[in-house]
Amino acid sequence: MCGRFIQSSSSDRLAERFHLPAIPARTPRYNLAPSQSILAIRMAESGQREAVALRWGLVPAWSPEPRTAYSTINARAETVAEKPTYRQAFRQRRCLIPADGFYEWRKEGSRKQPYCIAPTDGQLLTFAGLWEHWEREGQLVESCTILVTAANALIAPIHDRMPVILAPEDEARWLDPALTDPAVLKPLLRPCHPARLRVWPVSTAVNAPGHDGPELMAPLRASLNL
To answer: How far apart are CA 16 and CA 67, in angstroms?
Structure first.
């Protein structure tokens, strides 16, 4: 799964990386949690890319309330094309979610040890996301979910799931509104190569959503070869 992640890159870096004219200045975040506002890139009606703030936890357009009774922060890649909560967004409302890294927890005895997972080359990761527009009686909520898939060999010792990290060459296809066939889209939703990521243990301070800062990424000891 993906329940916490990092968006710490500058607006200028994000704009350059995702071919956008500009992104408003934003505060670096090191411990984004469900229900919070996250940055995503999607296709606007003009046919151009746009950066938007979306609430993390997808609310289907047909939901009677601006939230759901179950967790929608992640959508399983294996079933996303069929699940009523996600199937229309999968065909028509896909987005890119930039990340400088993410966190996962491994059970070690009676406790859970958090780990930070980040790109080995210092470049941005791009999660495959879906977004949705919900509106009732003048109330508007734009929300999103992060797709998850089976863990690769690096992440598997920590957790059996991981976010779908798109290959750079697949990002334009994922955003392409002309692509609506699940048979074409689902092959993009594969675990990334383990060599793209590195892993190290971090402080349990990351457990609290109220904690936010670069110190959360500080290693407890040397990076592990899990």
So the answer is: 34
CA–CA dist 209, 183 (Å, integer):
37
What the chain holds in terms of domains, given with CATH numbers, is 5-217 (3.90.1680.10)
Q: Which residues are catalytic?
A: 2, 104
pTM given for the model: 0.95
Contact 117, 103 (CB under 8 A): yes
Q: Which residues contact 163 (CB under 8 A, 6 or more apart)?
A: 2, 5, 74, 99, 102, 127, 128, 146, 147, 148, 149
pLDDT in tens, 98-155: 999 999 999 988 899 999 999 999 999 999 999 999 999 889 999 999 999 999 999 9
pLDDT digits (tens, 9 = 90+) for 57-86: 999 999 999 988 789 999 999 999 999 999
| Residue 43 and residue 21 in contact, taking contact as beta carbons nearer than 8 Å | no
> Over the chain, what HEC string results?
CCCCEEECCCHHHHHHHCCCCCCCCCCCEEEECCCCEEEEEEECCCCCEEEEEEEECCCCCCCCCCCCCCCCCEEECCCCCCCCCCHHHHHHCEEEEEECEEEEEEEECCEEEEEEEEECCCCCEEEEEEEEEEEECCEEEEEEEEEEEECCCCCCCCCCEEECECCHHHHHHHHCCCCCCHHHHHHHCCCCCHHHEEEEEECHHHHCCCCCCHHHHCECCCCCCC
Measured CA to CA, the distance from residue 162 to residue 76 in angstroms comes to: 10
